[in-house]
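Progress note, sequence design subtask.
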């Protein structure tokens, strides 16, 4: 069975109709190939799809294991190459987004542990995005689905969302909170950013960003 129309459309949008091996713009002359062939059990999923020009499509299947010449294309290699091309043509859709942990409520007021504040800011003027957030404190997961990656935050340009969660475990000592977050662009491609860490200073009710 071929890839579904929605999978084909997504793959073509993410690569902007460029070959995911040679990066040549293809226009109409592009095909969606299976990384793992269907004959070998490869599924018709987005993760197993790779847009290729006619020449590269033929080239990836040309290697003869019985008479090895040169170096064949490996599935893992093609997947990484494809993701690099996807990133090149979708990263312009990712705005600057800032997240932080804070006890500051504004107006000179502060939260008291175990209540912890969270701030998510869309710093750009471009497109809206969705954000998937996961927070752990001393490797303990925060119970709320909004901080476990199960729900997404809808973030419009120049908007700030304020949230809060209960600190897991004991509260009266130095704590390290790790935030992992991914931005989902308007084409539904997920871009995972580097994790950030905040450290709680006991006695000062204050979190600082750990480089």
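Output:
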């Amino acid at each position: 069975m071929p890839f579904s129309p929605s999978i084909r459309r997504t793959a073509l949008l993410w690569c902007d109709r460029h070959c995911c091996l040679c990066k040549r713009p293809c226009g109409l002359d592009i095909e969606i190939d299976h990384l793992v062939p269907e004959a070998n059990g490869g599924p018709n999923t987005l993760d197993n799809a790779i847009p290729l020009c006619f020449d590269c499509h033929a080239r990836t299947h040309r290697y003869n294991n019985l008479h090895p010449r040169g170096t064949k294309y490996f599935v893992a290699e093609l997947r990484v190459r494809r993701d690099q091309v996807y990133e090149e043509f979708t990263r312009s859709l990712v705005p600057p987004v800032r997240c932080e942990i804070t006890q500051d409520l504004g107006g000179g007021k502060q939260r008291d542990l175990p209540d912890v504040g969270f701030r998510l800011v869309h710093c750009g003027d471009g497109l809206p995005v969705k954000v998937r957030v996961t927070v752990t404190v001393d490797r303990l997961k925060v119970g709320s689905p909004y901080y476990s990656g199960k729900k997404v935050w809808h973030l419009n340009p120049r908007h700030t969302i304020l949230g809060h969660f209960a600190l897991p475990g004991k509260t009266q000592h130095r704590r390290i909170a790790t935030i992992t977050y991914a931005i989902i662009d308007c084409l539904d491609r997920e871009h995972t950013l580097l994790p950030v860490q905040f450290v709680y200073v006991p006695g000062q009710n204050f979190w600082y960003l750990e480089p």
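The first strand starts at residue 30 and ends at 34. Work on this subtask will continue into the next period as scheduled.
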